[in-house]
Structure formats: structure tokens, C-alpha cells
Specification:
5-stranded parallel β-sheet, alpha/beta
């Protein structure tokens, strides 16, 4: 009988449990949870801040999930070390847990660059966890002036959650546009305009250099007065547990297409892992919820003796602000040909290289994006489909009759 240990209790962890139980119904599973609550859907914390979701309704699985799956959950505990020779995990209270198979699903942590005077700011917060949200919610009032450092997804979702319930929101970022890791200049401008409609102020190409209590001095010399500070500069994968025992680590914990790390009997999944990106043809961290689910399930199946390969993961982002929705997937590779379509409040871009769809961006579009995503994941040659039709509309009619039968349940 195996003895499974999972470090972490997010999407990748619960999916790992499900992967294990799909193969092995009996062996014990221990989950180490740094937070004091069951796994919840992190993207919902901005909606909870806005008042549109209740924390008690954010759990990823039913209340009896752990019990039904024979899991022992150690809440409020942190793994601080792994001994791969003795096959033990050491917790912050000194406890040593034995394992036969281990999955590191430790997620990521906020990155806070050195900023002079940050220690003088009394009300400062991150925005990654339920506890972060609850603390921020308690700190703001209807008159609060909030400064958010970081115009990526985390910072902007926090801004959306606050915008209509406080005095003002200012967002700054050293990047020249919002969502710079996801969108090009044109797409970012469209999303920014929607946010500005709700009173947000942006300082882009500029960011906080130092703090003097409730005043931020920007790199440009401008000053911003605030009551509450949110630091959303970025995140870093939690890789130290594997790095410290000599495992292969880059931006994330390097894993193969079975989610195995370079250390025997240790797997990695979720935001801490660096897995294969089929749109890029190389490994990279794909810190998105669907990928955490796929990686966790793959790791669990293989930990339990199954044989699952994950070689078709792609970056996939579904973002919405005040009703304007954006979907992106894949990569806009250098040298890609681009099909573009525009309309009022709408941008559609499809990226093609070497006869394959490699990425897309859909803003304000009502499209069956899953069809485009399937073309990227499965590396379907565009000369095998009616791509001219797909440019206009994502439809199954662009596939051959045989393909429609095999992919779409017999639809013709």
C-alpha cells in the first residue's frame, strides 16, 4: 500500500486527490494545507470583495470531499523540508510525515520588490488568498483612497472588486499597458477604457519608488496620496522545497509530461510547476486554474501507478471586467501571421505559424473559443479544416464529417 502526501490544498491538490482515487481507492492520503480552510476557488475572491460571492460558497468541492476520499487534512501547517532519502516531509511544528509518493502543489507567493519606506505604510495588503481578501475588506471604507501597485490580473481584479464601494482607485505599473503579459497594446487599451468608465485612474510606465507613510513617490516624481495600499506586482512559484534538495528548478519546479520532478517519487503540479506548453513547444509555468486541474489529475494518476501524459497544455486566460470579457490562449510567436477583426468594443486576433493556429485573443466577442483552443492543443493542421470559415466564426462546420463525428460526439 502507498502512502501519499500532497503539499498544498488548492486546485492542483484536490485534482491530485481525484487522480489518485481514480486508480487507488484505498491507500491513505495526507494533504498539508497552509490555509485554515478547504480548497476554494481563488478567482472568486474579487467577487467576494465586491459582495457578489460569499466565502462559504467558494469551496471547490463538497463539504464531505476529503472524508469521502479518505484524506487527512493538516490545516494551518507548512511544509519546511523534504528528505528524499528517508522519504519524509518536515512541517513547521517539527512533525515528520513519511511518504511513498509525494506531490508538491505549493502554489506561488506574492513578489514584493524592495521599496524604500514600505514599512511605514500601516494598511498594506496582498490579494491572493481568502484571508487577504477578508483583511482588505475590513480595512476599506466608502471614502478610502486605494493605491494598487500592479496592473496585472490580480491587481485589476482587486480594483474591480473595490471600484464601486470606495472613494477612489489608482493603479500604477512600470509596464506601459495593463495586462502586459497577456494582451497587446490594442487589446490592453480596450480593457483599460472599460475600467476607466468605473472611475479608475491609471499611472502606467510609472510605479511607486518609495513611501512616506500614506504617500507614494513615483519613479517619475509624481506623488499619490492613499489610505490603503495593495501590492500586486507579481507572483513567484514556490520552488524552495525542491531546490533545497537539489531538484531541477527554473522559474518553477521542472516536471516532465507525467508531472514527475527530477527527484524519484516526487511530482509537482499547479502554479509552482513548470510543465510542457504545447503552443510554445517547451516548458514554462502556466499559472492558470485549468492547468492546475490538468496537472494535478495527471500527477495523481501517475503517483498511483497509472500512465497519464499531459503534453497538450496551453496558456488560457478568461478575464472579465464589468461585463467586458476577454479570452486568450496559446502564444503569439515571432513571425506569426495574424488574422484581425474589429468592431465597437470588440477585437478578434488569430495567430498562425507554420500551418497551425498558435494563439488567439478575443475581446468582447461571443465565440466558441473551445474550438480555437482545440486547434492549438491538438496541433491540428489548418489545411485539414476550413480555416477561412473559422476566421469568421468558430464552428464545427469547418471540420470534415469524420472529424465532427470523432471530436463532437457524432455531430454532422
Amino acid at each position: 500500500m502507498e502512502n501519499y502526501v500532497i503539499i498544498g490544498n488548492g486546485t492542483a491538490a484536490v485534482s491530485c486527490v481525484e487522480g489518485i482515487r481514480s486508480v487507488d481507492a484505498e491507500s491513505p492520503i495526507t494533504v498539508i494545507s497552509g490555509e485554515n480552510c478547504p480548497a476554494y476557488c481563488r478567482p472568486l475572491i474579487s467577487y467576494a470583495l465586491e459582495g457578489k460571492a460569499k466565502p462559504e460558497n467558494m469551496n471547490q468541492r463538497p463539504a464531505d470531499f476529503y472524508e469521502k476520499n479518505g484524506c487527512k487534512v493538516l490545516y494551518g501547517k507548512k511544509a519546511v523540508g523534504i528528505d528524499p532519502d528517508k522519504k519524509t516531509v518536515t512541517l513547521d511544528d517539527g512533525t515528520r510525515l513519511p511518504y511513498t509518493k509525494l506531490c508538491v502543489a505549493a502554489g506561488s507567493s506574492p513578489f514584493v520588490p524592495p521599496m524604500t519606506g514600505l514599512d511605514t505604510v500601516e494598511k498594506k495588503f496582498s490579494f491572493m488568498t481568502l484571508d487577504d481578501m477578508l483583511a482588505l475588506d475590513k480595512a476599506v471604507t466608502e471614502d478610502s483612497r486605494v493605491l494598487i501597485v500592479g496592473a496585472g490580473l490580480i491587481g485589476l481584479k482587486c480594483a474591480e472588486g473595490l471600484a464601486d464601494r470606495i472613494g477612489s482607485v489608482t493603479v500604477c505599473d512600470l509596464a506601459p499597458r495593463v495586462l502586459s503579459s497577456i494582451l497587446d497594446e490594442e487589446g490592453a487599451a480596450l480593457m483599460q477604457a472599460k475600467l476607466e468608465e468605473h472611475g479608475m485612474t491609471f499611472l502606467l510606465g510609472d510605479t511607486a519608488d518609495r513611501f512616506e507613510k500614506n504617500r507614494a513617490v513615483m519613479k517619475s516624481g509624481k506623488t499619490v496620496d492613499f489610505d490603503v495600499l495593495v501590492l500586486a506586482v507579481g507572483v513567484r512559484a514556490n520552488t524552495s522545497l525542491i531546490r533545497e534538495i537539489g531538484g531541477e528548478v527554473n522559474r518553477g519546479i521542472v516536471a516532465d509530461t507525467h508531472m514527475r520532478t527530477s527527484i524519484p517519487d516526487i511530482y509537482a503540479a499547479g502554479d509552482c510547476a513548470e510543465g510542457y506548453d504545447s503552443s510554445l513547444g517547451a516548458n514554462r509555468v502556466l499559472a492558470i486554474l485549468p492547468n492546475a486541474r490538468f496537472q494535478g489529475e495527471c500527477a495523481g494518476i501517475n503517483m498511483a501507478g497509472g500512465d497519464r501524459t499531459l503534453d497538450n497544455a496551453v496558456p488560457l486566460n478568461a478575464i472579465g471586467f464589468f461585463g467586458l470579457h476577454c479570452l486568450t490562449a496559446g502564444s503569439a510567436s515571432e513571425g506569426s501571421a495574424v488574422y484581425e477583426e474589429r468592431g465597437p468594443g470588440k477585437i478578434k486576433k488569430l495567430y498562425v505559424k507554420d500551418g497551425f493556429l498558435t494563439g488567439f485573443a478575443l475581446i468582447g466577442c461571443e465565440e466558441r473559443a473551445g474550438i480555437y483552443t482545440s486547434l492549438i492543443r491538438e496541433r491540428i493542421p489548418l489545411d485539414s479544416v476550413d480555416f477561412e470559415l473559422l476566421k469568421q466564426l468558430a464552428t464545427t462546420a469547418a471540420f470534415s464529417r469524420e472529424e465532427r463525428r470523432s471530436k463532437f460526439g457524432g455531430a454532422v
